[in-house]
Amino acid sequence: MTNNFEPLIIGFTCNWCSYRAADMAGTGREKYPPNIRLIRMMCSGRLDPMFVMKALSDGADGVMITGCHPGECHYLEQNYKALRRTILLKRTLGQMGVDPERVKLVWASAAEGVYLAKEIGIFVEEIREKGPLDWPSRKNPAISIVEKEEVSV
Amino acid sequence: MTGKPKFAMYWAASCGGCEIATLNMHEKILDFDANFKVVFWPVAMDAKYKDVEAMEDGEILVTLFNGGIRNSENEHIAKLLRKKSQILVSFGSCAIEGGIPGLANLTEMHHFFDTVYTTVSTDNTNNHRPQVEYDMPEGKITIPEFKPVLQTLDQVVDVDYYMPGCPPETHQIAAVIDVLISVVKGEAVLPPKGSFLGVGNSTVCDECGRTRNLKKITEFKRIQDIKKIDPDLCLIEQGILCNGPATASGCESKCPSVNAPCAGCYGPAIGVKDFGARMITAIASVIDAEDPDEIERIMDGIIDPAGTFYRFGLANSMMRTGKASWNGK
Ligand code: SF4
Ligand code: FES
Q1: CA–CA separation, B326 and A137 (whole Å)
Q2: Which of A41, A43, A66, A84 is the pocket-test mutation for ligand 2 (most atoms within 8 Å of CB)?
Q3: Domains along the sequence of chain B with CATH
Q4: CA A89 – CA B321 distance, rounded (Å)
Q5: What is the ipTM of this complex?
Q6: How far apart are CA B320 and CA B306, in angstroms?
């Protein structure tokens, strides 16, 4: 692995819990690595597996999905759906050669800023260990897959 | 004869089913012949690549191109036909999404060759493999080069229209041919570039006659393990994976109406960007479990998620390939 590899992580966070937890970590001057870019959703149930695939195929090395603790989702049981989706998604990605551990689901309430910051830190180190994902994509010219040449008629 | 607009149809990495479905038009083929001059169609008539190369750019009015781009020959002809055709239609699942041949994107290239050249059923004791180039006393001979990753037609050239299906239904092809004839006669105009032709604007579920209740699945089964399939109840409710929720309508729900789950051959329904992601969402929603271990147990019944949810659409999905294939080995 390259020594100066900095993992790029996309975090999908729930508006009602983990996004606030992350906010709280900031307010409380709790440090967490800048490798994670948080995207706020209204609920973990909003997570379309496609978002994770888009992130991974466009350059992310890992994806963290966070939601309210089981039983505490503001939209009843959407976080259980997120749980089931994540499990099925990881199985599918595994067949494609993406280490399923590059996708992680974490429950964190709005009060758990310290805990979330710690989890982010752990995940960044786990991904650093695994190294870059380097998925072949339009944005990754290192891997040569021929792309369309515009031909005008 | 020379006044008639010119037509071509080509197959790249495909099975030939698209051509059969087209020829299945029966007497419509006479209509077609009255209005078009077929200049290139390897399955149906003799023609040489050099004849196409000798044409003027844009000389062919419409080309139906089926099959994915698997080797250098497919790529060459795709680029050639793009140049020579005014309208290039990506025809059938393989050209649009990679189709079944696109599933090879999940494995390393050498597995592909091992299967073809080194299996018990193949008599190849010296383990000969095709060479892209070979020096013969008469000179160098070449064959097309296999690519590590199968690509869809529109990943390689610009495409005007899409016509999905594995194969597209004959009545849909006939309807599109009718439109083309009207366009040629000046009685109709072409739809906007990039349109999907011969396809419904809903899902297979929407056309399926089976009853749907609130689904609560606790077990997935393979269809061959089920003794008696209820002919009226949604297949998913019976624990059979069915791709109907993500698949574009247009086939009149053929498979579910004969007790077979929708394979997804018509490709993603309108608004579905990634077929597999939509199926993961749909299936995860109906599983009746909240405990992670129980969820894992139920999902063990989904033997091959990537092969099921990306049976036709892997090459066109967000991920496009498995990681193994693009090392080129
Ligand atoms: S899931 Fe399959 S069987 Fe059920 S309604 Fe949809 S197409 Fe019909
Ligand atoms: S509201 Fe937080 S996971 Fe649903």
Answers
A1: 11
A2: A43
A3: 6-98+152-184 (3.40.50.700), 204-316 (no CATH)
A4: 15
A5: 0.92
A6: 12
